[in-house]
Amino acid sequence: MKTSIAHLVSLLVTLLPSVAAFSSLQGCKISNAHRLPTEIGMAKKMKNKQAELLKKMELAKQQAAQETSAEVGSEAKLSDAEIKKQNDRKRFEELLSTQPVGMSDLSADNYLTQEQEEQDFDLRRSGQALLFEGDPAPTEEFNGLISTTGDKPIGEMGAKRLIPWLRDGRGSDFLIVVCDPRVKSNDLRESIKALSTELPKILLKETIVISADSPAENRRFLKKNKVTNIDMFSDESKTWMKAYTALGAQRLYSTMFIVADGRIQKIARDLDPLDAVKTIQNAVKSYQSRSL
Q1: Cβ distance 184 to 115 under 8 Å?
Q2: pTM (2 d.p.)
Q3: Residues 6+ apart with CB under 8 A from 230
Q4: Could you give the C-alpha distances from 211 to 146, 152, 154, 240, in angstroms and in order?
Q5: Residue 122: which of 98, 93, 97 has the closest Cα?
Q6: pLDDT above 70 covers what percent of the chain?
Q7: For residue 195, pLDDT beyond 90
Q8: Helices 2-26 and 37-76: crossing angle, nearest 10°?
Q9: Are the CB atoms for 218 and 211 separated by under 8 Å?
Q10: Angle in degrees, CA 260, 179, 216, rounded to 5
Q11: CA–CA separation, 162 vs 164, rounded Å?
């Protein structure tokens, strides 16, 4: 199909100068009797060339139509899974075409930028062993987290205080987690500072941060930046982050999760510190609107 279209364009480009020149000769008021032999010969050649090119163009059109028909026929032979994949891709492209680009993506109720949505779609198609929204949320790995208030894992009892569906009805029904597998991650630290000053208190108390740094390093960072309103945990072995597939698909980055009812409700991979507050607010709003 592409070859035929390119061929048509090429023919048009070739034809236009010939048509123009031929029209110019026909537009002259000079009779054949007064023309020079070279002029008459040139006119005949151009007329023949024009007819030849028009014939080639018609053949190219017919070939293009045949190829289009063949493509339609091949689509009819696709399996249900392949057709679904094609339709999903088309719907996703339509979604992208209606979404604004950049920071304005987060100005309404969107919690993912256009780039994040496309990345998520590509990751789903890649077949990688990653967790996505709607997947079961691992719970046992919470036991090994170490709080900044101590140097030992929080254990099963500590995990039950964090995990919403294990709290026996106490507190909120969801938990927001921001994590980063990089040691002393500047992105994570910038996000923490932004969240501590800009995220509404009602959401901040339902938010925890998990880093790859030691408890002592986390304490030093919090103290230096005078952050006292965020619960921070250490996952030096990255056991929790591995379970939640938060180690980055192709590179390392920060990730935001909302977990509730035993499942991952929202994910924002490659979290930008500049967008962290708005991303969390909109993700919670999206989750709550669907759970009503």
Answers
A1: no
A2: 0.62
A3: 192, 195, 196, 204, 207, 208, 209, 222
A4: 10, 15, 15, 10
A5: 93
A6: 59
A7: yes
A8: 160
A9: yes
A10: 120
A11: 6
